[in-house]
Amino acid sequence: MLQSGKRLQRVALLCLISIVINLLGSFITAKTGVPLYLDSVGTVFAAAVSGTLPGIAVGITTNILKVFFDNDLTSIYYGAINVMLALCASLCEHRGCFKKISGAFLMVGLFALIGGGLGGILTWFLFGFATEGISADFASAIALKTHWDPFISEISADLLLDIFDKGVTVAIVFAVIWFLPKAFVEKFRYDGWQQKPITEDLRQAMSKGGVRKISLRLKIMLYITVASILLSVVAVTIGFVLFRRSTIEDHKMLGESVATL
Predict the structure, then answer these.
(1) Predicted confidence (pLDDT) per residue in 59-78, tens digit
(2) Residue 51 near residue 224, CB atoms below 8 Å
(3) b/e string for 171-208 if b means 16 or more Cβ within 10 A?
(4) Is residue 194 very low, low, confident or very high in pLDDT (cuts 50, 70, 90)?
(5) 3-class secondary structure for the chain?
(6) In the predicted model, what is the mean pLDDT of residues 18-31?
(7) What is the mean pLDDT of residues 178-200?
(8) Is residue 50 within 8 Å of 11, Cβ to Cβ?
(9) Residue 106: how many other CB atoms lie within 10 Å
(10) CB 94 within 8 A of CB 203
């Protein structure tokens, strides 16, 4: 029991550090004008080292805190994206992607599809063709150069920029995990309900042995992950409705002001 309590404390500390890393990355890119986000380095790191649930906690908390620290109300809408990034990073870790270069390239592609692809679609759904933000100028340049549809230009810009962003993210996390001792990393592992983490050798043995039963722990983690994604979707939907109402009211007030001139 004492060991479980210490493990939870270590996981909580790792989550706190990961959140700070996310916020610091976002702050640095905002101040320097570098066309990157770097606000998911901590999310990927927490999910890869500690597991799915800590990664989700770091991702959602980061989005909430950015509302206050960056005065960025739109960041809360992207909570579902960070949840999916955390889930994907955790799955990639279980598949050994953080142990080989080919796995690193695979993760860059997957993370870019989530952050740039789904994130770009969400941006379009919320705001239409971007007129501000990191990808706005790039999307406009693509549209002018290629005469593509604005939606295609927006998604293309978001995807290309996110490939670079997630490339840097994966490189940082990959390097840190590569150099950290395995015994040290295991101290921060949290696989749910305080059970002893499954070692890589045991995981492979179970896979070869044809074990098909889904453990209670895996079921619970699956339920919590699905619930987290659903909550994020609900939050995004509510945020969109409120944002839409606010925008309509602003336009009404502007129209009335112009009419009275």
Answers:
(1) 989 988 888 887 777 787 78
(2) no
(3) ebbbeebeeeeeeeeeebbbbbeeeebbeeeeeeeeee
(4) very low
(5) CHHHHHHHHHHHHHHHHHHHHHHHHHHHHHHHCCCCCCCCHHHHHHHHHCCHHHHHHHHHHHHHHHHHHCCCHHHHHHHHHHHHHHHHHHHHHHCCHHHCHHHHHHHHHHHHHHHHHHHHHHHHHHHCCCCCCCCHHHHHHHHHHHCCCHHHHHHHHHHHHHHHHHHHHHHHHHHHHHHCCHHHHHCCCCCCCCCCCCCHHHHHHHHHCCCCCCCHHHHHHHHHHHHHHHHHHHHHHHHHHHHHHHHHHHHHHHHHHHHCC
(6) 94
(7) 71
(8) yes
(9) 15
(10) yes
Hey, what are 134's tokens?
A: 């990191």
Supply 40's token pair. 């998911």
Q: Locate 203 and state its tokens.
A: 């995981």
Q: How many CB atoms lie within 10 A of CB 69?
A: 13
Q: How far apart are the first and last CA of the chain?
A: 72
d(CA 58, CA 138): 29
Q: Which residue has the tokens 């870019």?
A: 112
Question: Angle at which helices 150-179 and 41-49 pack, to 10 degrees?
Answer: 50
Pair of tokens at residue 155: 């998604």
Which residue is associated with the tokens 């969109």? 240
Q: Which amino acid is at 133?
A: G
